[in-house]
Structures are given as C-alpha cells and as structure tokens.
Design a protein that fits this description.
alpha/beta
C-alpha cells in the first residue's frame, strides 16, 4: 500500500481561549479525494491554512511527500508540490487567463521578480500555462481578462493556476462555493479525473459533491476530528450521525443566538443545527 502523500499528526492551534484545531490527525493517500466536512466555525479553513503554511501549529507535525514541512513557508511547500485553491478568489483580475496561468508557472520557479512582458515571451512558461488551461477547458478563453469570466470559469482558472506548479497534492477550500447546479456538476467531473494526477484534500459544504467524489470523509466539529471513514461508513447509520452531533432541540448548545418562545416566533437555528439538518438528509 502506498504511503500517504500528506500526513497530519496531533496538530493543535489556539487563539487565546479558542481552540481552533484540537489534536487533529488525518492523511491523504495517492489517487484519492479525502473530504473534510463540518459546520461553519468547526476549524476547517484554519486547519487548511496550517497544512498550507499560512499558520504555524502550536503542536503537532505535518509531513508532505515524506518530509517534515511543519516549519516551512507557504512558498516552500508549494515548490515541494503542494497545490492550493482558495475559498475566496485569489486571481489577478485585470490580467488575462493566460497571464494568470503564466504567473502560476513563474511562482513554481521562485523567480517572481522578473519583468512581466519578457516572462510572456518565455516559451517554457507559456507552454506550461497553455497545457494547464487545456486540462481545465479554458484554452479558448486564454485572452479574456479574469474579471470577465463567470464565477465557475474563475474556479476552473484557479485550478489551472495550481496545476502549473505540477502539484503532488491539492488542498481545495470550497471549490463549489457560488456555483450553480450545472457549474457544480462540471467541476465535479473535472475533480473526479484530477485525483489520478494529484490527490485532493477537499473542504466542501456541498454534500452532493462530497458524497459523489470522496473516497474518505473526516468530520470536524469544534476543531476536533470526530470521525473518519469511507462514504458508506459515514452514511451507514443515521444514529451514528446523532452520536456525532447530538440531537437538535431548543436547548441547542451550539447556538449563540437567543431562542424565541415557541408561542411568539419561529426558533432561530445556529450554524451547527443548519449543517446537521443538511447532513442528516444525506444519511437518509
């Protein structure tokens, strides 16, 4: 059995009295999509930032491709082959699609201070960029500004930019966010094939995408991984979901909102309860 490309062990991170990551351990194996799910505020994005190098864990070890990268910068991890897409678009909106992809390829070289126009005449870089655009289906949009693309096309471009670094693994933070049904299905099809090039650690709220794509799922609640298993194992028993998250009622401990008296107004629901109701629909 192949060794995991990414191995996270005992990672913890606190901000004052708030524990954002609580002794988190997970791994990512070659050829798989490992989904990380949980309610808003569970600590998913904070964990991704630590894996990518944007935050340093208080404790724990992060190994990538057999190397301890816990103390390495984001740029150093990217050069080792850790690709990433963001929850909020990080594209250069006034540049063309091709120029964005070339910038990604240039970052791989670690030579980002070169003048931009000479870079666009570098055939080695433009060939890498063109290949990435072809893989995501944006080759016909190479001369469009990123600002003129649809939301779904920008998501595709973000993946293309990541591909130019020839990643060994992807960290993807909510790639389906803001996409319609058609756009989500198109991106799901692309990601399904992408796993063979580089495995994906996927943070996603779209349960349709999660249960369609994931080989394994880890459930993160209040900074801790409370369950990891295959899709069938996670979905197998609705009672298991209740054990993970508790029953929803008017005494919901996850809510910071005051509950209205039943006789006067509908009860307001916390993010934990909203997320739980989404997940239970899929367990059923």
């Amino acid at each position: 059995m192949a060794e995991p490309i990414l191995n996270v062990r005992g990672v913890s991170k606190s901000f004052g009295a708030l524990t954002a990551s609580d002794n988190v351990s997970l791994d990512l194996k070659p050829g798989e999509i490992h989904a990380l799910i949980g309610p808003n505020g569970a600590g998913k994005s904070t964990l991704i930032k630590q894996i990518a190098g944007g935050l340093t864990p208080d404790r724990g070890v992060i190994r990538f491709d057999g190397r301890d990268v816990t103390a390495l910068s984001t740029a150093a991890r990217a050069r080792l082959g850790m690709g990433r897409t963001f929850q909020i678009s990080s594209l250069a909106m006034e540049y063309t699609v091709l120029e964005n992809a070339v910038l990604g390829a240039l970052g791989r070289r670690g030579d980002v201070l070169r003048f931009f126009r000479p870079v666009m005449r570098d055939r080695g870089l433009t060939d890498i960029a063109e290949s990435a655009l072809l893989q995501v289906g944006l080759e016909d949009f190479r001369n469009f500004r990123a600002a003129d693309l649809s939301h779904g096309q920008r998501r595709q471009l973000e993946v293309a930019v990541a591909l130019t670094s020839q990643p060994k693994a992807f960290l993807m933070d909510e790639p389906m966010a803001g996409l319609g049904i058609e756009g989500s299905h198109r991106l799901m099809g692309f990601l399904d094939g992408l796993r063979e090039k580089a495995p994906i650690l996927l943070v996603e709220h779209d349960m349709d995408a999660v249960f369609t794509l994931a080989d394994r799922i880890s459930v993160l609640v209040y900074g801790a991984v409370i369950a990891t298993g295959t899709v069938d194992e996670i979905r197998a028993n609705p009672a298991r979901g209740s054990a993970y998250l508790g029953a929803e009622d008017d005494r919901c401990a996850g809510s910071s909102l005051p509950m209205s008296p039943p006789s006067t107004a509908p009860r307001r629901r916390c993010s934990m309860c909203i997320w739980r109701s989404r997940l239970v629909r899929w367990w059923r």
